[in-house]
Amino acid sequence: MLLKELSLNYPEIVKKCSLNADNLCRELEASLNQAYEDFPLMFPREFARIEKELLEEGSARARAKIPEIATNLLKGLEEFGKDSMLAALTPVKTEPIISSERLNLKGSPSKIVCFEGVNVPSIIKPGSCPLQGVWASDRMHAASLALLLEAESGKEVSFAFVEYVSFGLLRKVVIRSSDRREVLKTCRRVEKIKSGFMPEKTEEKFCTECTFSEHCVSNSSLLSKFF
């Protein structure tokens, strides 16, 4: 959560500081300190449940990531240019709720940014980052938000951004037809499950942890072929 708040301040940091590693590290640390102080005001319910030791540990871990974040931000600025990088980082809206009656789907991107004259979704991810591109689950998340934004704006959304905040890496994701197909397929699966039709059971490592496994269909059926 601290790294997410830090990332939302990247545009202001990039605008005001001279772009060298030392200056960027200082500005990032100052912004992280401010986010830490603002935490109780922004998230009073969550803050009340967090032990002080845990919060301090999280702050220390976030602070330790600053040199790597600064290095990757500088690489991104060199590669894409300051104006393009700022456009990809600067939110037009932050955490809006967007929905589609046709898809019976609702979602909230971390932010919507205007890149090359088009509003596109951007999602902030705090976990690990692949060497190239984005994780498959993040691609599906980005595709679903692109479909929702298309439904709201009536304009095609052909790409999205995934921001891996623990590393200061911004990845552009081109939304493929196969991504759209997978999102639609998943939506229809969920609708069938909500209507009482459980998909055919497949024994996987996750089954032992699933609280609904006893309700799965154990034998093949004609209906299961449509899932």
Automatic annotation (TrEMBL):
UniProt-recorded Gene Ontology molecular function terms: exonuclease activity; iron-sulfur cluster binding; metal ion binding
Sequence ranges assigned to domain DUF83 in this UniProt record: 140-217
Keyword Kinase recorded: no
Keyword Transmembrane helix: no
Cofactor section: [4Fe-4S] cluster
Membrane-traversing stretches: none
Key words, A-Z: Exonuclease, Hydrolase, Iron, Iron-sulfur, Metal-binding, Nuclease
PANTHER family: CRISPR-ASSOCIATED EXONUCLEASE CAS4, DNA REPLICATION ATP-DEPENDENT HELICASE_NUCLEASE DNA2
Entry protein name: RecB family exonuclease
Taxonomic source organism: Methanosarcina horonobensis HB-1 = JCM 15518
Lineage: Archaea, Methanobacteriati, Methanobacteriota, Stenosarchaea group, Methanomicrobia
